[in-house]
Design goal:
Number of helices: 26
Number of strands: 13
Distance between the termini: 49 Å
Helix content: 55-70%
Radius of gyration: 47 Å
Largest sheet: 6 strands, mixed
């Protein structure tokens, strides 16, 4: 499809160069994440109301720079200011939740209490195994050393192949804030951001606890050696002397390697066997005790203290600059309030039969004024005060954010796949075939795409499928797309209001219009003389013809303006709706000659009175005849006078009656529907549309009759237009089902006169 691409001029709202993440100190990061958890977990505004949040946004933007006003935005200052305002309100209403902005008190108690508990536990062993001897093969000693060696091995492996942090918070017992959704949302967000920091703190704590345990073991061993004389040795049923010697050499290898001590021989180890009975002297026992102390210090205490110090330094470094990812959905929705969504669409070549549909779609998305250019609109289509922009992109798909493709069937879509893959852009496909099949085809080729039926053309802003499709392929621009959809809905609502204004003016003009013919009033001559009767019939036919001609001319003018309003030619309404037009069955009012009507009434009344005289045998002396003449003549004169009021003193008046106006109202809705749905591959069953229109008109007959009764009254046109707008939406919804709202509000609302 050619001619739909153009350059996008510069906008007063340039793209904001917002960072993908912020580096914040721990205290500011906690407050920011708590504020976001409040907005995420309390969407109804139960804690901090939605109007309060809107006011905070407006005030903080005014203080830190509003891009919508062409001001540079200090993002860090804006986020900090709105966070402080939100948490200040939260602190007054839910102090327990606001307290989450500070580290929990139990963390400090745990940092001091756990190493102390480990120190006491290590000392409570009272020297590893037995209060009166030091067993060099003591299972607690061997397990203690082995466990620490396993920990060091695991740390070495994770240093070579780091484990990626998944951000899953531990299942701690509920503390401040209880189980409130805000507290849960904050904990999840905090562990996503500060997981490495908290991990380093836990490493520091565990290393300190392990070192304290070793210190407790050493203190217990030394304290016992002060008040007791240890028997140092070994015993084993399964191990022989050479095996024990090798095991002890491996166990004490760090001590022998780092300290200036002499290695022990096989004979020395043999003398240490408890079963020999020889035992060792105090000097030899003291040597083995100090070697055990050195073993615990070198293998456990000093490495653990070094690892704890490293974790502490790492935690301090992380706490100074926590990375808050602004691409996360909560922050993306927030930043969308200041970051415009600038969407450029590249329209790929379409089959010739579908090109007019796409041109009309883009025209209706644009300003929608004036005639539709033959090659379609180009450049900007929609914008918002926040700086969002929807535009037709340049000639290359590479310069676009979205590819728009229309296909008559999935075969055409399959042919376009190489070009789509080469472009590497999200795709919005309009297909006539099965949507699921087209979506599976695009998904199978790894393309981010959404599929809509061609029946969605020309687009209706109230059809939420368009917004859902765009947000599905461009999730990071969801809020900006919401604003663009609102602008589209507002423009669509304004177009609908203008269309209903045209139809209301047309209908009220028909209701107020009348054709008056100056002909002799109905009398005896018209009943007796054929020429007078034919002249009157001729005048009546000419009046009907003139009135019908004005009605048709007025309708054609309205249809032309209605078509232009939707970017269509004048044939859009006239094709397919002429058969649905109601027959012009006008109401004809005929004036009556008052004198002749009075004489005829008097004659009739006198005849009836004479009958009474005859029945009474003349007893009334003719009074009945006289009275009948007076009453009949007076009644006929009053009836003629009343009838002549409707013809304004003329002989003949033709106008539309209520039934015709009701039929014309239904026809007006069908004319609008023909324009609004023009070009759809399947606009619905015309018979169903006609039935819906007639049903709605019948249901609102009283309200419409009130409009016909005073067509020139103040506010009549506006009231009728609002009523017809309701009918148009009812008919459209009846044809295509409930249309999800594309934006947060229904668009511009009519204000009734005096309201």
């Amino acid at each position: 499809m050619t001619g739909l691409r153009g350059t996008v001029p510069s906008s007063p709202h340039p793209d904001l160069d917002l960072p993908e993440r912020l580096l914040l100190p721990e205290a500011r990061a906690r407050r920011l994440l708590l504020a976001q958890a409040l907005e995420t977990a309390d969407p109804q505004g139960l804690l901090v109301g939605l109007p309060e949040r809107s006011r905070i946004d407006a005030d903080t933007l005014a203080a830190t720079g509003d891009p919508a006003k062409g001001q540079p935005l200090d993002l860090r200052a804006w986020l900090g200011a709105r966070t402080d305002r939100l948490l200040d309100l939260l602190g007054h209403r839910r102090p327990a939740l606001a307290a989450l902005a500070s580290p929990p008190a139990w963390a400090g108690w745990l940092a001091a209490g756990l190493p102390l508990l480990a120190l006491l536990a290590g000392g409570a062993l009272d020297r590893i195994d037995n209060p009166h001897q030091v067993n060099l093969l003591s299972p607690p000693l061997l397990a203690f050393v082995a466990w620490n060696l396993v920990v060091y091995l695991g740390l070495a492996l994770t240093a070579v192949r780091p484990v990626r942090w998944r951000g899953t918070p531990p299942a701690w017992p509920a503390t401040r804030g209880g189980r409130h959704p805000v507290a849960r949302a904050f904990q999840a967000a905090w562990w996503r951001v500060a997981g490495p920091l908290e991990g380093q703190r836990w490493r520091r704590l565990l290393h300190l606890a392990a070192a304290a345990w070793g210190v407790g073991v050493v203190l217990s061993l030394l304290a016992g050696g002060v008040v007791r004389e240890y028997r140092v040795g070994w015993e084993s049923t399964l191990l022989d002397l050479p095996q024990v010697h090798a095991l002890l050499r491996a166990l004490y290898a760090p001590v022998l390697a780092l300290l200036p001590l002499q290695p022990f021989s096989l004979d020395e180890v043999a003398r240490l066997h408890f079963g020999d009975g020889a035992g060792v002297g105090r000097e030899a026992a003291r040597r083995w005790v100090w070697m055990t102390v050195a073993l615990v210090a070198l293998v456990v205490v000093l490495p653990r203290l070094a690892l704890a110090a490293w974790a502490h330094l790492h935690a301090r470094r992380l706490a100074r600059a926590l990375a808050v990812d602004l691409r996360e959905p909560p922050f993306d929705a927030l930043l969308a309030a200041v970051r415009p969504a600038r969407l450029r669409i590249a329209v790929l070549p379409a089959p010739p039969a579908l090109q007019p549909l796409l041109r009309q779609l883009l025209w209706q998305l644009g300003a929608g004024q004036g005639p539709l250019p033959p090659e379609g609109p180009a450049g900007p289509l929609l914008d918002t005060p926040r700086g969002d922009l929807l535009a037709v992109a340049g000639p290359q798909p590479a310069g676009a954010d979205l590819l728009l493709l229309a296909c008559a069937d999935t075969a055409e879509l399959a042919e376009a796949l190489p070009a789509l893959r080469a472009a590497g852009r999200p795709v919005l496909a309009l297909v006539a075939g099965p949507e699921a099949e087209a979506a599976a085809l695009l998904r199978g080729h790894g393309l981010p795409a959404a599929v809509l039926p061609l029946q969605a053309l020309p687009a209706c802003a109230a059809d939420g499928r368009w917004l859902e499709a765009l947000q599905a392929v461009l999730p990071l621009r969801a809020a900006g797309l919401q604003r663009l959809a609102q602008a589209w809905a507002d423009r669509d609502a304004a177009r609908l209001a203008r269309a209903m204004d045209l139809l209301a003016s047309d209908l009220l003009a028909v209701a107020a219009d009348a054709e008056v013919a100056t002909v002799p009033q109905m009398g005896v001559r018209q009943l007796v003389l054929r020429g007078d009767r034919e002249a009157q019939q001729q005048a009546r036919a000419e009046a009907l013809e003139r009135l019908a001609a004005r009605w048709l001319q007025r309708q054609q003018g309205t249809d032309a303006r209605l078509s232009a309003l939707h970017g269509l030619g004048p044939e859009a309404v006239q094709q397919g709706t002429a058969a649905a037009a109601p027959a012009p069955a006008w109401q004809v009012l005929q004036g009556v000659d008052r004198p002749q009507a009075s004489l005829a009434g008097a004659a009739g009344g006198a005849a009836m009175g004479a009958t009474v005289d005859l029945v009474t045998g003349g007893l009334t002396l003719g009074a009945a005849s006289a009275l009948g003449a007076v009453l009949g003549g007076g009644a006929a004169l009053a009836a003629a006078t009343w009838r002549n009021r409707g013809v304004d003193g003329a002989g003949l008046k033709v106008r539309a009656d209520g039934a015709v106006l009701q039929a014309l109202a239904a026809h007006a809705l069908l004319r609008w529907l023909q324009v609004q749905q023009a070009g759809r591959p399947a606009m619905g069953d015309p018979a169903q549309a006609a039935a819906l229109a007639r049903g709605w008109v019948e249901a609102h007959a009283d309200a419409l009759a009130a409009a016909w009764a005073a067509p020139d009254g103040p506010g009549s046109a506006q009231r009728l237009a609002a009523l017809l707008e309701e009918g148009a939406q009812a008919v459209l919804g009846g044809l295509h089902g409930p249309l999800g709202a594309a934006a947060g509000s229904p668009g511009p609302q009519r204000t009734p006169p005096g309201g």
